């Protein structure tokens, strides 16, 4: 059963506690203004609002945004909360002033429970689910169209890069062979192709890994994150904190490398004799290693198992 929390307005809503909530609250404890770049169900934002912070929440999913606004209507009415329909990788064109800065910025890169649980959204490998996986209307294609049109070589590269699949070439070939007989339309089609390559003993972890890879490609998630990281850094106030929860090794690698570079005084090539870069670190990494969910949290919310939290602080 999902936990129940009472908001200051007196309204009660049942929902899953967001991933690594206590850790996010601690990292952003000193913030007055927060930008929640992945509003989703509004769980993190609700907790921050309860602490008295002013929060701007953005999401590319209009249904998620509408649900969060309904849940947080009292905060929005008082001016403590506002919601914007946009992709966090395109904030400057999504209604956010170019010069607006925040004490804390949060990204939770996972798919929300509501998106997973809504069969029609196609994020799940449950029987009969459509192959959709689009997080918002800005996605150029859905999962079915991608699987039915992508070149075999490109599909193999996708599965190798995003799913770490050692049999990527064979799986791509199997998908192409099957779609020539009948287009991929439901999760069953992709699951059957996976089983044909990985064998009958393949199961949920394999399906989740492959489906995640397709979702990342559909929503252009890694290139969007790479593009957004420096822009989000530049939206921090001095001493502000950027906290990012990732669920995929590619996401975590991008975040780790960005935080490392920003925390390094010199980023010139190793063989360069004279420093021509900025010469000073832009800030400091607050998490030497990623923070993972506790066993207790994972027991209550299995989707937290792969979550990795990293945080970085802009210099004063």
UniProtKB/TrEMBL annotation:
Keywords: Cytoplasm, Methyltransferase, rRNA processing, S-adenosyl-L-methionine, Transferase. Its EC number is 2.1.1.199. The gene is rsmH. Belongs to the methyltransferase superfamily. RsmH family. HAMAP family: 16SrRNA_methyltr_H. The keyword Amino-acid biosynthesis does not apply. SUPFAM superfamilies: Putative methyltransferase TM0872, insert domain, S-adenosyl-L-methionine-dependent methyltransferases. Signal peptide: none annotated. GO terms for molecular function: rRNA (cytosine-N4-)-methyltransferase activity. S-adenosyl-L-methionine binds at residues 42-44, 59, 88, 108, 115. GO terms for biological process: rRNA base methylation. GO terms for cellular component: cytoplasm. Specifically methylates the N4 position of cytidine in position 1402 (C1402) of 16S rRNA. It catalyses: cytidine(1402) in 16S rRNA + S-adenosyl-L-methionine = N(4)-methylcytidine(1402) in 16S rRNA + S-adenosyl-L-homocysteine + H(+). It is found in: Cytoplasm. The lineage of its organism: Bacteria, Pseudomonadati, Gemmatimonadota, Gemmatimonadia, Gemmatimonadales. This is Ribosomal RNA small subunit methyltransferase H.
């Amino acid at each position: 059963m999902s936990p129940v929390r009472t908001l200051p307005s007196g309204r009660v809503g049942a929902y899953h506690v967001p991933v690594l909530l206590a850790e996010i609250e601690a990292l952003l404890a000193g913030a007055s203004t927060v930008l929640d770049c992945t509003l989703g169900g509004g769980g993190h934002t609700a907790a921050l609002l309860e602490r008295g912070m002013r929060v701007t929440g953005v999401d590319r999913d209009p249904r998620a945004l509408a649900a969060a606004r309904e849940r947080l209507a009292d905060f929005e009415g008082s001016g403590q909360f506002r919601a914007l329909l946009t992709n966090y990788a395109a904030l400057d064109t999504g209604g956010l002033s170019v010069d607006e800065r925040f004490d804390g910025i949060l990204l939770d890169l996972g798919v929300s429970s509501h998106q997973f649980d809504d069969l029609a959204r196609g994020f799940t490998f449950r029987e009969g689910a459509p192959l959709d996986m689009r997080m918002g209307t800005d996605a150029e294609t859905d999962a079915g169209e991608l699987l039915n049109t992508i070149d075999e070589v490109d599909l193999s590269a996708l599965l190798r890069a995003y799913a770490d699949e050692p049999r990527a070439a064979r799986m791509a070939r199997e998908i192409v062979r099957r779609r020539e007989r009948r287009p991929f339309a439901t999760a069953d089609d992709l699951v059957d192709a996976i089983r044909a390559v990985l064998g009958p003993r393949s199961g949920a972890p394999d399906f989740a890994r492959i489906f995640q890879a397709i979702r990342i490609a559909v929503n252009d998630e890694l290139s969007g994150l790479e593009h957004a990281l420096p822009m989000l850094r530049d939206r921090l106030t001095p001493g502000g904190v950027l906290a990012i929860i990732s669920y995929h090794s590619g996401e975590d690698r991008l975040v780790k490398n960005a935080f490392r570079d920003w925390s390094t005084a010199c980023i010139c090539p190793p063989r360069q004799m004279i420093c021509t870069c900025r010469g000073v670190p832009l800030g400091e990494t607050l998490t030497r290693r990623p923070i993972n969910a506790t066993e207790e949290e994972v027991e209550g919310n299995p989707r937290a198992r792969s979550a990795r939290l990293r945080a970085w602080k802009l210099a004063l």
